[in-house]
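Q: Convert this sequence to structure tokens.
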Amino acid sequence: MNAPIEIPTSSRLRFRLMDEGDADLLFELDQDPDVMRFMTGGKPTPRDEIENYFVPRMLDFTDPVAGTGIWAAIEKDSDEFLGWILVREYGFGNDYLEPDNLELGWRFKRHCWGKGIATEAAGAVLEALKQRTDIRRFCAIADRENVASTRVMEKLGMQFGKATVHVTPKGNFNVDYYDMPVG
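A:
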């Protein structure tokens, strides 16, 4: 049996996979309208949606050995939960699943914005996942107007691939798809 993937501590952050016990942290993060601007138009996520939709969906793609799930990014000095990095097979929940293409996503508290924290966290996760031999690509998607997320993708080394429609149980979203080969 393989050991779970661990994300090494970065200069400012430590990481752990989130689970059902983290509903309070997920709820708190989603209450800031600015954080939710590109996800829900700024509407905070109701508590029952975190517990009955978000957490079960997260658990469906969480696999410690594969390194998939949602990784909490915690500030080393203060022990504060700053946000998270999502890792799952691209197309999760859809008919176009790409098991060898890992999608990265992120959501961080507003006070972290513009400080390189999302890039640091996503970069640490991406580097740790390169040890998987069954992955050929990493990708990320973002609303075209979400310039900050696009900058993170570019800083990670991803390049624009296409404008596409991202299909989710919550609706369809026009996004830009960025990706990069492993290696």
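The chain is about 25% helix and 35% strand.
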